[in-house]
Write a structure and sequence with these properties.
single chain; 174 residues; alpha+beta; Alpha-Beta Plaits; 2 domains; five-stranded antiparallel sheet; 5 strands; 56% helix; 22% strand; rod-shaped
Length: 174
């Protein structure tokens, strides 16, 4: 059986139409993908300057935070040495005309806040003198740079010219 010329023409036309349909489908899919990629590229190009500005701002904030951390680290002693602080306390007491009747220096405890660990000592300072001298002693403690990382948390005054002052000293343990 011999295939006629019309059948070959119809068969050729069907093959050409099928090829055109396949090409059109691929082209349509690629065009949609190209449009999607162009839209994503446009969005990324719009977002890029915003993200670059945010990165710069965050780097500036980081630099400021590191600078602030370094400045604050300088205020805190590395170690809280009882001998040194004892000498300082007796020196300030002498200048303020109060008697520091005893000094017990407890072992430091440690407290972690975030990634920073602090040593902490709470001292009970029994002093005697006039109320004015006791207040001068407290003011001198707070004004002394050696006690920049310390705070007076309480002062209990007695009637006989005595007082107990609670002094907390903080140290930075890198």
């Amino acid at each position: 059986m011999r295939i006629g010329r019309k059948v070959w023409l119809i068969l050729g036309a069907v093959i050409i139409v099928a090829a055109l349909v396949i090409l059109f489908t691929n082209y349509s899919r690629q065009a949609a993908e190209r449009d999607d990629l162009n839209a994503r590229l446009s969005g990324a190009q719009t977002l890029l300057p915003i993200l670059a500005n945010q990165k710069t701002d965050l780097e500036n904030q980081l630099a400021q935070a590191e600078s602030s951390l370094n400045a604050n680290k300088a205020k805190f002693p590395e170690l809280i040495e009882s001998i040194e602080y004892g000498e300082y306390l007796f020196e300030i007491a002498g200048k303020s005309s109060v008697d520091l009747t005893s000094l017990t220096f407890p072992k430091p405890t440690y407290q972690t806040i975030g990634a920073v660990t602090y040593s902490f000592v709470s001292l009970q300072l029994p002093v005697s003198g006039t109320p004015d001298n006791i207040f001068d002693f407290i003011e001198a403690l707070m004004a002394d740079e050696r006690f920049a990382s310390a705070e007076v948390t309480s002062a209990t005054l007695g009637l006989s010219g005595s007082a107990t002052i609670t002094l907390n000293i903080y140290g930075y343990n890198g």
